[in-house]
Write a structure and sequence with these properties.
heterodimer, A: 226 residues, alpha/beta, Rossmann fold, 9-stranded mixed beta sheet, B: 514 residues, alpha+beta, Alpha-Beta Plaits, Dna Ligase, domain 1, 4 domains, 16 helices, 22 strands, 30% strand
């Protein structure tokens, strides 16, 4: 059977597979992320050479840094003077492969560009508005080095936007209890796909990690009866 | 190497009795004129003359020495200290006469001919050396022996007060009366007296062939020494290259850039000197002296090797940090000293590109050059009850110094999950009850008022849930570091959780659960 005789859908599938094989030879594999996040992201991971925009960083940023760091990659964090290093360690980020540039002030762009030379994952919180030109400069460096930029805030050419909404803490009542875990809705809208994907996740879990939210809602509060 | 010592090869030995005690006094800046003894393996190895006068002697057990002299100060032996301090003596001698051999800490030897020819006689040469050491360093206990050969000169120094000279060719006669234990060979000094040979003269009288047959080559060598024909020569040490560099500025410089620019050539020479010696500097001390005699010194570390540009960066940072505070005048001198060096072969870049860590170090150093030494940090987790106290930020390249260990229980610390945003400086906030009154704790630690509004700066947040207080009362024994506070967790209506601290009636946000 020649390719022309194949049914159209099968032909398309074959062509796609061939392109994927060729592309994977050229391009580096995406950086791994937690399986729950992988299901939401376009390439099932962080695509080398692209930027991701996060709204409401914090625990989500730590969860994104954790897997590449566990694989042995270096991570850099620019412009976050309040970065919780101990929470990062508990989330799975290796602190001996983590470099912080807490207060670069006006030089955040230069510092980020320099870090991208050698660090594959760099998180940055820009000070002030990001101009198109700055973003373009950084993006070409990013593509050249096949690194990933995680931006806390808006970014003009982001591969995908990750946002956290509907936060719900459990464990604490009115004058009682202790914070144990938080349920959030993580929404990913990609530049390449029109569909928004979202999932209900537990971030952080009582141990500081990321997990899927249980299907059955836990009983929110207990009241004394009788 | 070894050849028979001719009459021209006179040897001068400088000996400091009880050197370990003198070295201790020099290094600690203490007075050795009191009963002091140095002990190794429970035996006295050296003692001060005051201790010797009380009956302390080398070879005694420590307890016996202490029973003879109850005020005895007993010190542990430290060979490194002995050698280090003796280095100064050797330098002092080398200034007068080159070619010094360090026999052991406390004893050095040199050829007598040069110096004695210069000053007139051997006795005067000895006086000159002793005086130079006394003037430069202070110890007055030195003795000098001059004789043919090292062994005889050393024996002459032991017998000297303070200068003993054995005339050329008189070695055999001088040595004849000394006991055989002076040979320093344990088995021979016990065996020979049992054979009826008590002095070196008796030993020298034996037939050389018979000595070789009975005691072997080692015995024959000692026999030659006892005959006053020591074949060993002074083997002068090669003085170590001077790696430290100093630059004086005239007139004093007032701008950081001036200092950095002027010192460039000196820094390159400094690194070049290290490289020529096959060394790579991994720890560097930079000392800056101001016009008003201020000394700003700091030791810098690097995970790699100091390159000239990195050294200049360190000088620049140190000046910037010190300007205005520790340094209020122009810079008159700059001194660079390698504190730790490593063999250069361990730091040569590989043939096929450098590894990831090498590139990371390069990039992080560049960012450090851009933002200053504290610009790039690596976090470490230390001990403590407060979140900001637990994360220790170490500037890139520095050695982490954790004051308190993290693995202790630290009762009162925040358990998991930990907040993702920890404020380096706690932020002032207000927690108010429904009626606008600030929530506070009464004397019994009970909460007065129901928290309902959280004000962070201009922002007004409704409190959806809260828990606490968890009291922390730490270091009650230390008034400076005593801290007594209550911790609260507050969740606002937007779902953000805060870690608040109530201390002395005021509310602070310690961290936020982002």
């Amino acid at each position: 059977m020649t390719p022309a005789e194949l049914p159209r859908t099968e032909l398309l599938a074959r062509l796609r597979a061939q392109v994927a094989v060729k592309e994977s030879r050229i391009r580096q594999a995406p950086f791994p992320v937690h399986p729950e996040l992988a299901a939401l992201l376009p390439d099932r991971g962080l695509r080398p050479g692209s930027a991701y925009s996060l709204t409401g960083a914090g625990a989500l940023l730590l969860a994104l840094l954790a897997e590449p760091s566990r694989e042995g990659h270096w991570c850099g964090v620019v412009g976050m003077p309040d970065f919780g290093a101990e929470a990062a360690a508990h989330a799975g980020v290796a602190l001996d492969r983590l470099a912080l540039v807490p207060d670069p002030a006006e030089q955040w762009l230069a510092a980020t560009a320099a870090l991208l030379e050698a660090l594959p994952i760099v998180a940055v919180r820009p000070t002030g508005r990001v101009s198109e030109g700055d973003a373009a400069k950084l993006m070409s460096r990013l593509r050249d080095r096949e690194a990933v930029l995680l931006v806390d805030g808006p970014w003009p050419r982001a591969e995908a936007q990750l946002s956290v909404s509907n936060l719900r803490w459990s464990g604490v009542g009115v004058g009682c209890g202790y914070l144990s875990s938080r349920e959030v809705t993580v929404t990913v809208s990609s530049r390449r796909g029109p569909l928004r994907r979202s999932a209900r996740l537990v971030l952080p879990t009582p141990t500081g990690h990321l997990a899927a939210a249980a299907a059955v809602e836990p009983i929110s509060s207990l009241r004394a009866v009788g | 190497m070894a050849r028979a010592t001719g009459a021209g090869d006179r040897c001068l030995v400088l000996w400091f009795p009880g050197w370990p005690v003198t070295a201790w006094a020099l290094s600690e800046g203490e007075d050795a004129a009191r009963p002091v003894a140095v002990v190794s393996a429970n035996r006295i190895v050296a003692c001060s003359p005051e201790a010797a006068a009380e009956g302390v002697a080398t070879g005694q057990r420590r307890r016996e020495a202490q029973s003879r002299c109850p005020t005895l100060l007993v010190l542990p032996a430290d060979e490194a200290r002995d050698s280090r301090e003796f280095g100064q003596v050797v330098e002092c001698v080398e200034r007068l006469a080159p070619g010094v051999q360090v026999v052991r800490p406390g004893v050095c030897a040199l050829r007598a001919r040069g110096l004695s020819g210069y000053v007139g006689s051997e006795a005067e040469a000895a006086e000159v050396l002793l005086e130079a050491v006394v003037v430069a360093l202070g110890p007055t206990s030195g003795r000098v022996g001059v004789a043919d050969g090292l062994f005889t000169a050393l024996q002459a120094a032991y017998a000297a007060n303070p200068v003993g000279i054995v005339p050329a060719g008189g070695s055999a006669g001088f040595l004849a009366a000394l006991p055989v234990s002076r040979l320093g060979d344990e088995s021979l000094s016990t065996l020979l007296p049992r054979l009826g040979v008590h002095t070196l003269g008796d030993f020298a009288a034996l037939d050389a062939a018979a000595v070789r047959d009975r005691f072997g080559q080692q015995g024959l060598r000692l026999h030659t020494q006892a005959c006053g024909q020591d074949p060993s020569l002074v083997q002068p040490r090669v003085p170590p290259p001077e790696l430290t560099r100093q630059l004086d500025f005239e007139p004093p410089l007032t701008l950081v850039d001036q200092v950095a620019f002027t010192s460039r050539a000196m820094v390159e020479e400094f690194i070049g000197g290290l490289t020529a010696a096959g060394l790579a500097c991994t720890e560097l001390r930079v000392e800056l002296t101001g016009e008003l005699d201020e000394l700003v010194a700091r030791t810098w570390l690097t995970p790699g090797v100091f390159e000239p540009a990195a050294v200049i960066d360190r000088i620049r940072w140190q000046l910037q940090a010190a300007a205005g505070g520790q340094l209020n005048s122009g810079i008159v001198s700059l001194r660079l000293e390698p504190v730790a060096v490593d063999a250069l072969v361990n730091h040569v870049p590989g043939l096929f590109g450098s590894g990831t860590d090498e590139r990371v170090h390069h990039v992080l150093s560049r960012v450090q050059g851009m933002l200053g030494h504290d610009g790039v940090l690596t976090p470490r987790i230390g001990g403590g009850r407060w979140l900001a106290e637990r994360q220790v930020m170490v500037p890139w390249g520095d050695r982490p110094v954790l004051g308190t260990p993290a693995e202790r229980p630290w009762p009162g610390r925040v358990p998991d999950p930990l907040p993702a945003a920890v404020f380096a400086e706690p932020r002032p906030v207000q927690l108010q009850a429904q009626d606008g009154e600030a929530v506070r704790l009464d004397d019994r630690g009970q909460l007065c008022g129901q928290p309902s509004v959280l004000r962070v700066g201009e922002e007004r947040l409704e409190v959806a849930g809260w828990a606490g207080p968890w009291p922390i009362d730490e270091r009650a024994w230390d008034p400076a570091r005593h801290r007594s506070a209550g911790r609260f967790q507050v969740v606002d209506d937007a779902g953000t959780a805060w870690l608040l601290v109530l201390q002395a009636g005021r509310w602070w946000a310690e961290a936020r659960y982002d």
